[in-house]
What does this fold into?
Amino acid sequence: MIKQLKMHRHSDETINTSLYYLRAQIIRNGDSGLKHVEALMHQRGLDLDALPVPEKRNRRFRKGQLRQALLDELRKGPRTSRQLQDAIGHSMNNFRHTLLTLEARGVVRHERRVWKLALRGQRPF
It folds into this structure.
């Protein structure tokens, strides 16, 4: 059975925003159809570079894996937040909460912009 579509009127802003979003998604994921979306954007008079395409976020961590990755990096030695960010591939906002939780539990400590393991011969988790 074919589903009947209800046609509603959409505002130009909604259509334009959808095209920008679709273009960004195609670029990030390397999908096909970029030419078609850009042709539609050109037809509507949209600037292709008006909105930057954000990088694809790394969503590879499941529960507990981010904590483990942070601890693995800190086992190599003291690291700044920037070094942790570069090594793990996430923005600081993604793992700040995890670092603060580990600090509250006494597993890591933060001294002069450097994160260090605070363990004394015991395994944290």
User: Anything to note?
Assistant: Strands lie at 79-80, 108-111, 114-117. Residues 108 and 117 are 4 Å apart (CA to CA). The two ends are 54 Å apart (CA to CA).
